[in-house]
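input
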Amino acid sequence: MARAFLLVLDSFGVGGAPDAEHYGDLGSNTLGHIAEFCAAGAADRAGLRSGPLKLPNMSALGLLEIATLASGTRPAGMPPPEHIFGLHGCANEVSKGKDTPSGHWEIAGTPVRFEWGYFPTEGEAFSPELIDTICEKGNLPGILGNCHASGTDIIARLGEEHIRTGKPICYTSSDSVFQIAAHEMHFGLERLIALCEIVRKILDPLNIGRVIARPFVGESAATFARTGNRRDFSVLPPEPTLLDRLVERDRKVLAIGKIGDIYAHQGVSRAIKANGNDALMEATLEAMDQALNGDLVFTNFVDFDMNYGHRRDVAGYAAALEAFDQRLPEIHRKMQPGDVTILTADHGCDPTWRGTDHTRERVPIMAFGPGFRERNIGIRSSYADIGESIAAHLSIPSGRHGRSFM
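output
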């Protein structure tokens, strides 16, 4: 039996991107800086974690060697494993953005060679003409925000006014994205989703990568909290991805978390929603039981990015990594002869870095399964090598942009 399990630790970069300076990210290193802060005691949090970063299972899959290969620096305080298993290396991103769709599409064999559309970084983010069109087609009294912002911050700042006026909170970031936050009850979740679908069509000519629905609950700035009903409305990938090639050959792609949204549900056999890393892991384990010969289970673990990277929460990120690492043996126990699991990331989001945006970094590649011997696969020239390795493993024709390391 040959099955593949692709697990994306959203934003778990390992530094060293050769073009990081172009993005203002020279020196960023998500893993390296988390380990450094943990070793120094700066990432301790009472009752949550303490001491050096502890990732024994990923270390046994070559994570420390990957970090040294990627950035030239071994993560501080992390002890070396007794043995290393499976294939390990890292990959450069060739796509022009450092955003979620670009990273995921490239992982699936389709780099983004074009430039996304972006909103201005100075002054108001959205033009009066764009706002007028959105308000007219969405039957809105107006919008709030109209700026670059952190989602949690802008909800705390404008949430009460949103409830009072009925105006949705609209904002962007350094990514190609239009985000709409609205209260699930006062504004309505279905109304928010419908509004995002309207805005998606309006923004298509501007080549904006995603429109994101950010529902929240609570009645005051002190109690507002985003819910798990987030929806991403992406444009279609520019050409068929690994997912499309699998589905065309009657293989199943079980897309867990926000994977379905990222690929605009193209090449997805079944989308499985789950909220939070533990729930995503449970859904992955269940999907492994359901996957048949030739199938792909594809999961995005979003908490690393959404809850900790963007919020610059070093301790939270470290604790989430340690919790994920502890559950990796459950993945291993589900695997059968012929299976492969690949751990990787889609970009960085260094929680020690300035600002709140993604960081341009290399990403780790850890591939393991029954019968896999230890091998260093080096620095791959594109994330697309990951998708082509899965294609080779599942015996489907290769794509145009990557090279298998299997």
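quick obs: The chain has a mean pLDDT of 95.
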